[in-house]
Here is the input.
Amino acid sequence: MRRLYSSLVDGRGFDLCLIGIPLAFLIVLSGVPLIYNVVMSFQAVDMFSLGSFIRPWVGFENYRQLIAQPEFWPIMGHTATFLAASIAGQFLLGFALALFFWTNFPGASWLRGLFLVSWVMPGLVVGAVWNWLLSGDFGVFNFVLRELHIISDNVFWRSDPAFALWSVIIANIWLGASFNMILLSVGLSSIPDDLYEAAELDGAGALTRFWTITLPMMRSTIGALISLGLIFTLQQFDLFAAITAGGPNNSSNVAQYWAWDLSFKQYDFANGAAISVIMIVVVMLASVYYVRSTRHEVRG
Amino acid sequence: MTTQIEFSGVNKHYGAYHALKDINLSIDKGSFVALVGPSGCGKSTLLRSLAGLEKITGGDISIAGEVVTTLPPRKRDVAMVFQSYALYPHMTVEENLTYSLRVHGVSKGERKKAAAEVAATTGLSDLLHRYPRELSGGQRQRVAMSRAIIRNPKAFLFDEPLSNLDAALRVHMRKEIRALHDRLGATSVYVTHDQIEAMTMADHVVVLRAGIIEQQGRPLDLYDKPANKFVAGFIGSPAMNFLPATVAEGRAATIDLGKGPIRLTIPVAAPIGSSVLIGIRPEHITLTAPGEGRFDAPVAFTESTGSTTFVSTATNPELMVVETGRRMVANGDLVGLAFADTAVHVFDGATEKRL
Here is the structure.
């Protein structure tokens, strides 16, 4: 008894406790629902069997049904567009901002901190703000584009099937760019100044230094950021709920919103689970890449 | 001798801080010049200004006859070895060496050939495909130097390149850098805070303090004829002993070590009654039996390295004596101190300039 006590207070038992508590937390709140979801995607589920864990096993029937739905491929296409455009936009804008603040003009760090406001705002609030900005008849976005003579007539961003997805993408880029900027700023500042000085003395101009020093030295940061971006973007639900609700006519519907729609609006839990499992696989792959790129950091 | 590098009236301000004050310095082609001084004296700033990494706020710098004051670093054709080596961590040794060639559009085949040639002379041939993180400190140092050599620049700049190495390797690299300099016939500017490095490696030593050149010249001239108290104390190890003295009649001065005035002959004339500083290097004092030297002093403590014995006296101010070999004196023993008249340096008490 005393040995057990001393082990718990100061020894292996204490270590196990420290690991055990967060592990139990993760298992209860993430692990079990995840497994439950995976199991459910292989079962026949309806409103009446919702409460039981043992349900008729149907194999890949749910997946077959899901893929057979006419909106499946368009929604997958939208998801891919949303991912690619959001990640590219957030990354490029974030990198541009990071480089801008890197020049360290007076007040740069202060201003950089302010940019984080967009990142800490809840998606629903950001969605509401962008609803006004993107509004077809009185939106500021249209006004700016019109004054710049980029468009001649108002664009009804949220209700035009050609633009609905892009209105969410624009809001999402705005939401995520500052997070990209912060991580990239950290990456930039971790490159020692004397490397640039050495490169400059070696004859490299600003652009050459960027391509041969900055980018390669940032490789692990960029890898981590892209995989994090993939994970965060696949989790982006609030903006869809707030801006377009997947419409009009599924033109801005994406996998994560569709999963919710199937499960909790159409009560088709089996198909909702199936699409979630597909997303889990994608996110897992991104996570593996994330872990790999943070492990292979270049050290001097 | 032609002048390779010339600083004329160079000033550098950081805001209100005046880091370099009207520096005039010319460096001969093929010479090895050491900039030495305590930290914050401006030696690194001067070197970085030469490289173009710092913009000077006044004056001109020219390299090989061309004024480069406004040129960016990459157009100055100088190579620098950094204290941290600044090797590109994501490139192999070969890529590190040939980076400048790559930037200048030299073909891959020629780059490989050039890298192999330089690596052969610096002993890096087996390491060409390693990354900097896989190298020891001395090997990194060699890569940094080879990266400079491969460019065949107008001048080599060294910014305290040995301070990250252990003592034994430092002594070895000192010789290696100097040998390399001689072989290449290059012009080198070497910044260090270590006066021994400056004395042993350089043809010409420039001592800086607070942004001013205190003295420059050949190493032994600086040792023999320091221009002021600062240079006298900075050059030589252990540092010179300084004794406040009052000038007396007949080319003499009196010092007081706490036991009444002692009369010493001085090699220069000075107004009688003026206060001066007498400087005597520890290695120029020899211990004798009491009463046989210039004066007697009790021993405070001794330190022996085996080959050398350092003896400190229990006087005010304390005197340091360096004896070659082992000297068996115990703490509290009375010893006589002897030195030649020529070993005495005299500095003005107020301006600290050599008299």
About this structure: Chain A has one domain: 61-295. The domain at 61-295 of chain A is CATH 1.10.3720.10 (MetI-like fold).
